[in-house]
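> @MW can you paste both from yesterday?
MW: sure, first one:
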Amino acid sequence: MPVDAAAARRIAAAVLADGIDVAVSERMQVDHGFTQPLHLLFGAIDAVPVVPVFVNCVAEPLGPVTRARLLGAAVGRAAQALGRRVLIMGSGGLSHDPPVPRIQDAPPEIAERLIAGRDPAPEVRAARESGVVRAVAAFAAGDSHLLPLNPGWDADLMALLAGGDLESIDARPNDWFAANGGHSAHEVRTWIAAYAALGAAGRYRVDTSFYEAIPEWIAGFGLTTARTLPV
């Protein structure tokens, strides 16, 4: 990805000076959460310079959600100080509880793979993908132990972000997200961080909002666009 290294270092330094502990990686690997939105918006992942910001949404223990909000606000203030036009993107699921292994419950071989970060052997990957396909089919058919999608919870969260009262989310404990939206609902931290970054530049308006619960993806799918209002 075409990372703007100078901007990344300036933002990291400003965020640290703002009292938020961040680390910088010179060789960070990114996943579909980073690349798919760029490809859909710009036709390629290398069309525009970027500063990827990683927010932990999966690996426990997770910090309180307020830290994601404060990180986003600090990044937003730092981006504003760059003196250029900036697009803030946050990409993550809403309510969804897919069959993702958790290290504390995983068998030793899976736990080791999670710790080491190694790609599994082709036959292991194929077996895992087949298992996910079966789990998706069962979920879509209503025959699954996975937590159901929660469109009401998704709608409330999207409305909260659109309304700009982001600090009200601080009182929500981590267990609230998992209980209402599933373990992978913690990905809404990327939404919260992105809106907090946008809000650092002042009042904003949501221009586009779309939502659909998609059992065949085991996910509540949402999309919003927003822009800073003129002063």
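MW: second:
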Amino acid sequence: MAKRASSKSKGKAKSKTPSPAAQLRSLKRRVVRGAFKLVLAVLGLSIALVLLFAVINPPTTPYMFSEGRRLGGVDQQWVALEDVAPVMARSVVAAEDANFCEHWGFDLAAIKRAIAEGSNRGASTLSQQTVKNVYLWHGRTWLRKALEAGITPLVETVWTKRRIIEVYLNVAEFDEGIFGIDAAAQHYFGVIPAKLTATQAARLAAILPSPKTRSAARPSAAVRKRSAQIRDGAATISKDGRAACFES
């Protein structure tokens, strides 16, 4: 009888339900493993897409796709950088990221100025904007900013500066449903990108921060003033060598 009782006791011990603390530890381990696998998957996909788009033109972007569904289509045709007037590339650099050739994806001086002024205006580089436009979504969420911060150095490592400018010019929004410099040049001025003048290029660059509320063809006084500043800036970076990384 004693042996039978002992056998029953062992059976009960084996089938005993884990304690709440043990269950919590197990759950935490599963969550950590799941999160780690997700991070690895996102990292692997990011690396693959960065490598892919270094040589293949992105067929669309998340924002372009979203706008296409909303509007029933968008106007965008890819054009190689050598078929764009050089002053256009210089104009967007002068307008958005004058130190483009001198940083590795983040302009630390601009970030410090922005923090001191209590604003992020002017702190985002062309490299960051390209990453946002090509791989991510619009918005100011911490998740998007974190992904942008992680992908930007990778793009700077794999892509050339010239490639970054080329992709940026081809995916930037210039008006509602108008994406890329080819569609923008024809939409506003009826010319191909290679024929853009310095004034036209400066006006296109001037509307980029808010393309749906500004017009390059019918510029407001503020856009005209900004365009003049950009035109002067484009000439300056051409003379002082700050355009060398994407013009060579």
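> thanks! The mean pLDDT is 89.
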